[in-house]
Amino acid sequence: MKLPSVASLLIRVYRTTGPVSHIQRIRHGAVLNKNYSSVSAVKNCTALLYRNHGEPSQVVQLESLDLPQVGAECVLVKMLAAPINPSDLNMLQGTYAILPELPAVGGNEGVAQVMEVGDKVKTLKVGDWVIPKDAGIGTWRTAAVLKADDLVTLPKDIPVLSAATLGVNPCTAYRMLTDFEELKAGDTVIQNAANSGVGQAVIQIAAAKGIHTINVIRDRPDLRQLSDRLTAMGATHVITEETLRRPEMKELFKSCPRPKLALNGVGGKSATELLRHLQSGGSLVTYGGMAKQPVTVPVSALIFKDVRVRGFWVTQWKRDNRHDDEALRHMLDELCILIRAGKLSAPICTQVQLQDFRKALENAMKPYVSTKQVFVM
Amino acid sequence: MKLPSVASLLIRVYRTTGPVSHIQRIRHGAVLNKNYSSVSAVKNCTALLYRNHGEPSQVVQLESLDLPQVGAECVLVKMLAAPINPSDLNMLQGTYAILPELPAVGGNEGVAQVMEVGDKVKTLKVGDWVIPKDAGIGTWRTAAVLKADDLVTLPKDIPVLSAATLGVNPCTAYRMLTDFEELKAGDTVIQNAANSGVGQAVIQIAAAKGIHTINVIRDRPDLRQLSDRLTAMGATHVITEETLRRPEMKELFKSCPRPKLALNGVGGKSATELLRHLQSGGSLVTYGGMAKQPVTVPVSALIFKDVRVRGFWVTQWKRDNRHDDEALRHMLDELCILIRAGKLSAPICTQVQLQDFRKALENAMKPYVSTKQVFVM
User: Fold this and answer.
1) Which residue among A272, A297, A303 places its CB closest to the CB of B312?
2) A82, B200, B215, B358: which has the fewest C-beta neighbours closer than 10 Å?
3) Count of CB atoms within 10 A of residue A212's CB?
4) In angstroms, rounded to a whole number, what is the distance separating the alpha carbons of residues A96 and A86?
5) Nearest CA in chain A to B290
6) Which residues does residue A349 pair with via DSSP β-bridges, in sequence order?
């Protein structure tokens, strides 16, 4: 599968306004033009480019790229902040389900400020904060010319780190809590990888709705500290993978009902154990596979317990809802209300400069990382 | 889980009409009463009873049981024919999801004729053909007193073997083809265990609707003969498990689209391979686990291909629709139309007498059995 839409649209936009230069080789949102004389105040940008797949910190380079003129339906944006997500790393490694043509700029998420708008743009104005509607923008850069239709505004009264990390993890958490089971206050959700970006958002969004969460994490040196942090966020129970497999789990179900929904970011045994604790007719939704093992489902759970096994990919959801701006708008508004109310915080972040990318990428690859690397431009 | 409804209802009915004798020990539909003087023409029956779980042919015994009086809401029926299904064997072995209290009469499916009706029965009349609405009747017997509400009529113009085998396998096939994906003529369904009772019904019902079927069977001595038989029934393609795993499968998809629906009666590798051939967004529905191995689903199939993994159990469907007679009636009517049109035949059956039960049970346990054992009373 090749990355469609954003990058190819940009190239099409560019082609209508000027001669084709070597931009055709750069498809991943990084549109540059050494031959074109732009009227924009910002004529170039610094970006984290990769020309080959491989070890993330090795294949990425910091480069200066020229920007094209701002076409009638485009905007010039200054990037404010952009995180390193696990899917970005998989893209660099060449193992993700969608891969841009190379060379490409890394990063699929982030918040930017509009600096200049094309003549026909009605939806955005200078100063607006925007995030990409879809993956494929190439967000690890200081500035970009983007099609206005590929962006959606965010209010400027939320923290910049919340804005930069809103479009992937909290949206994934929100949709998984909304689209698979009808959950109401008092219901229970169980999840593994509870310390991931998605996991933390699940805890907070569920808590805001009065939904119990049983949160499974791997045993680790700072277990108590992490457990306390998740509990402070609103987690009902925090348990280790080992506890998940023990008979004493039944004690836990004296204080909350068996879960209707299980969220799986791990796979393997962990997923099978989540399933085991589900209510009859409940759903297991997989959004990640950290353990690199498949999801194994006993036949009896399917036939006699009617468990439903599904997957979720926020990129696909955004594409399926590409022409329904209301659905995306409604979700972002709800999440921003939670952020303003102090009920949904950004994950703990380490802010890094673009030039420190090698260390940031290496840190993002380490196991048991409890902080998200975010480029701040 | 204990068998509810039918048997316990019968006992409740009996209790309103006469003294309680040792019938309380027989909960599995087999209601008998040595102390009661019945006004029915038929006062007792012969039944295949089991008092312990174990090897089917060893634990079953042929016994004579007295029948209770026909209560106001009950009917006396003469059993005409009743098959041995895999789930019946699992019940005898004690490995099924629902198990009756022992002693119990074996068998959960079959067709009977009404011989006498209670005063308050409006839905049935003498001479009607009836089948049970739910599992738990104990059908391997010559006669029974049953609650009218637990029975549904079938037209008498279909073959008795079709009637005796309609309620489980064809109903399972019909619902799986109806409830999980919206299938239209030209779509494809893939299934393993294509030679099972359910598999044969799937082939015929799908063919009647113009739906392609890809039918996977195990390699065996009479492969060609079996393949020809399934093709004559309407199978689009018949392949072996080995072929299912080979690259030449893509040749097959030149003549029919990739399946929206995969039906799994096997589990293990076979189920994973069915999944691999599904369309994006398609469903794998498991109704059996002949291989005694779980269903293993790659994480990427869930996240990036949005495959949906579900289970189906016709007994649960019947219970969920217990108070919606229309749903059951509509399905049976549709199936009877197919039977009359020569589009849905009973599986190849071996008719046996109740007294030959040991040999019948042994035959039903053999692998690669291509004929269903049916008791004819």
Assistant:
1) A303
2) B358
3) 22
4) 10
5) A299
6) A372
Taking an 8 Å cut-off on Cβ atoms, the answer to whether A97 and B303 are in contact is yes
Cβ proximity of A345 and A204 under 8 Å = yes
CA atoms of B138 and B144, how far apart (whole Å): 9
The dotted CATH code for B6-162+348-376 is 3.90.180.10
Q: Do A297 and B302 touch (CB under 8 A)?
A: no
Tally of CB atoms within 10 A around A286: 29
Helix (H, G, I), strand (E, B) or coil at A284: strand
Q: Architecture of B169-315 per CATH?
A: 3-Layer(aba) Sandwich (3.40)
Query: Which residue in this structure is represented by tokens 């190819």?
Result: A8
**Given a cut of 90, is residue A24 above it in pLDDT?**
no
Distance of CA A266 to the CA centre of its chain: 16
Going by pLDDT thresholds of 50, 70 and 90, the confidence category of residue A370 is confident
Does A43 or B116 have the greater pLDDT score?
Answer: B116
3-state helix, strand, coil in chain B (%, to 5): 35, 25, 40
Two tokens, residue B150? 């637990």
Q: What is the pLDDT of residue B66?
A: 95
pLDDT at position A225:
94
Average pLDDT, chain A: 90
Would you name the residues of B annotated as active-site residues?
Answer: 96
Which pairing describes strands A237-240 and A212-217: parallel, antiparallel, or unpaired?
parallel
| Residue A94, annotated as binding a ligand | no
Distance from CA of A37 to the nearest CA of B (A): 41
Closest by alpha carbon to B117, among B28, B39, B7?
A: B39
Residue to test with chain A: of B299, B305, B317, most A Cβ within 10 A: B299
Task: Report CB contact under 8 Å: A303, B295.
Answer: no
B21 contacts: CB under 8 Å, gap ≥ 6: B33, B34, B35, B36
Residues in chain A within 8 Å Cβ distance of B302: 286, 295, 309-311
Check residue A80 and give its pLDDT.
Answer: 98
B55 three-class SS: coil
Nearest residue of A to residue B307, measured between CA atoms? A310
B195 annotated ligand-binding residue: yes
Spell out which residues of chain A touch residue B272, defining contact as CB-CB under 8 Å. Answer: 294
**Residue B342's Cα: distance from chain center in Å?**
20
- How high is the pLDDT of residue B233? 97
- Two tokens, residue A284: 């297991």
CB atoms within 10 A of CB A254: 6
Contacts of A310 in chain B (CB under 8 A): 302, 306, 308-309
Distance of alpha carbon A289 from alpha carbon B299, whole angstroms = 6
DSSP 8-state secondary structure symbol assigned to residue A186: T
Instruction: Pick the closest to residue B43 from B67, B78, B62, B18 (CA basis).
Output: B67
DSSP B354: G
Question: Do residues A204 and A338 touch, judged by C-beta distance below 8 A?
Answer: yes
Q: What ranges in chain A are assigned the alpha helix state H? A: 6-17, 56-59, 86-93, 160-164, 169-179, 197-208, 223-233, 241-244, 249-252, 268-277, 299-303, 314-320, 325-340, 357-365
Which residues in chain B have Cβ-Cβ distances shorter than 8 Å to A299? 267, 286, 288-289, 293-295, 311
Q: Give the architecture (CATH level 2) of A6-165+347-376.
A: Alpha-Beta Complex (3.90)
- How, if at all, do strands A188-191 and A212-217 pair? parallel
Mutate which: A276, A303, A318, vs B, most B CBs within 10 A: A303
Structure tokens at A86: 């696990």
> Across the interface, do B309 and A309 touch by the CB < 8 Å criterion?
yes
Q: Is B375 annotated as a binding residue?
A: no
Asked if B303 and A309 come within 8 Å (Cβ–Cβ), the reply is no
Please name every residue paired with A310 in a beta bridge, in sequence order, or none if there are none: A285
Tell me the backbone φ, ψ of residue A76, rounded to 5 degrees: -95, 130
Chain A partners within 8 Å of B308 (Cβ):
308-310
C-alpha to C-alpha distance for A93 and A364, rounded to whole angstroms = 13
List chain B residues with pLDDT less than 50. Answer: 1-38
Question: Where along chain B do its domains lie?
Answer: 6-162+348-376, 169-315
